[in-house]
Amino acid sequence: MTSSNQESRFKPAPAPAVRRLPGYHRLAQKFHGEGVETVSCTTIAEALSLDPTQVRKDIALTGIVGKPKVGYEIASLLEKIESFLGWDNVTDAFLAGVGSLGSALIGYKMFRDHGLNIVAAFDNDPAKIGTTVREVEVLPMEKLPALARRMHVKIGVIATPAEVAQDVASMMVISGMEAVWNFAPVHLDLPPEVIVEHVHLTSSLAVLSSKLTQKLKERHEN
Asked: What is the per-residue DSSP string for 50-64?
């Protein structure tokens, strides 16, 4: 295999497309529950206010082939999206930072439904160590590296304060973790081979607030 072929083969899917796939999955689940057997790109696009061509390109990433003038069998579409996103194979993860946000993440059932299983949590607060949150034990942070190696855990979830997030992320990488889901309000500097997904809650709030401010301003001017 040539170098160019290798690059093509392992080229990651576009992030915007991957972010849209869960929306298609939720819609397909809704239709499935209503007894609908097939769905077209046009129907999906209209329901989600998207372009049908974009929907078709996104869904094509999963490898499913639709039928002309019919669309996709919904059961197969659900299966293909789940397989593409890794939702059909629950992956164990460690969470660092058991504050309000971390505790909420541990208790969020939808994570497990979508392929993520937080099996242990870690914190430096003596008052939290030894307790359980939704049946997940809270352990001292110093135990994370050895346990990660022993259990072959590859995903780390960070919900710590910003000032310690980088140190925790570096610890996770040294421990053999290959993907970090960061909820801390800080950008992480990690090796390029490590997969990092930053969840910017404050940025999302800023977008919401600015849109509301603009809407109220326009209403006032009119």
From this structure: --HHHHHHHHHTTT-
